[in-house]
Fold this sequence. Notes:
The chain is an alpha/beta fold. The protein folds into two domains: 2-174, Rossmann fold; 179-332, N-(1-d-carboxylethyl)-l-norvaline Dehydrogenase, domain 2 (Orthogonal Bundle), CATH 1.10.1040.10. It has helices at residues 10-21, 32-41, 84-94, 110-117, 154-165, 176-187, 189-196, 200-204, 207-226, 242-246, 250-258, 270-277, 287-297, 302-317, 325-332; strands spanning 2-6, 25-29, 43-47, 52-55, 62-63, 74-77, 100-103, 122-128, 132-136, 139-142, 148-151, 170-173. The strands form two sheets. Strands 5-2-1-6-7-8-11-12 form an eight-stranded mixed sheet, sandwiched between helices. A four-stranded mixed sheet has the order 4-3-10-9. Helix 9 packs parallel to helix 15 and helix 13 packs across helix 14 (302-317). The radius of gyration is 19 Å and the shape is globular. The relative contact order is 0.12.
Amino acid sequence: xxxxxxxxxxxxxxxxxSLLAQGNDVVMIGRDAVRREVMKHxxxxxxxxxxSEHIPPEKAPFFTDPxxxxxxxxxxxxxxxxxxxxxxxxxxxxxxxxVVVYSLQNGVGNAPILREELKGFAVVAGMVAFNALSxxxxxxxxxxxxxxxxxxxxxxHQLARLLKQSxxxxxxxxxxxxxxxxxxxxxxxxxxxxxxxLPLKQELERRNYRRVLAACIxxxxxxxxxxxxxxxxxxxxxxxxxPHILNLPDPVFKLVAGSMMKMDENARSSMWEDLQMGRxxxxxxxxxKIAAEGDALKIATPANARITELVKAAFASGASPKMxxxxxxxxxxxxx
Length: 336
């Protein structure tokens, strides 16, 4: 199976590098800045279990030319959500018609956009549950102990096997809509991570930040109930119970959370990394999506709407406001 990783940033380089380290046929397509980094330093992938594997530059095929997708059996699409439509147009112009395109992106609306642009192509939704950390000099670290989920397709079984052999846990799901909405609940924290400017672990250890996240998730659950969507459990806890757990006092939360997920001390959200790199935020596809759906359904979503505004202001200024948990909680609380 020839695999093309399209939009190879942190997640794409981690997945592509892990596959390359096990001798798989992989080509990566991404930004020139990442290509230059990989061409200079090679590609090093690591994880929480202590695994670290290095691929020298000459064995790490990385290109900026979208035409390099030609000949791939599978495309793993890892571009940011605002770039989905353009990426689809480029894939349509260059890829074989029998290629299978997997959307490994944040948000719940990318696969429909791909199917709209890639008529006649097989498009399969997927979900990245882990956090990928770019550490510079071609080093990419899986900072949480989760893996990937991909939708059902004849190609999914071989792809999942190759990913598992490459030390990336992968499962196949029949209801990807439920999986994506379940992941969206977790992704609502990406924005809070930007606004706090703290490593994820430190942020989540502070109750006021968690109270903000709980409010955002409660609004998301209200939207899902109105749409008759039952979100899948991502990790060990159903999204329905997350607000209660997040609102626990710090000592109790630390005990509960310690059994839920392993997390690197330096892990950050992908949106925080986007801010550092001057990229466009995915906020309209995450908290902004909940706010927009709430407006359409006449459901109040003040927390997600305010978080969306604050993130857009942070990206406009080019820096995090470094808000405390109390300041952020005050910001989303409607004034009497």
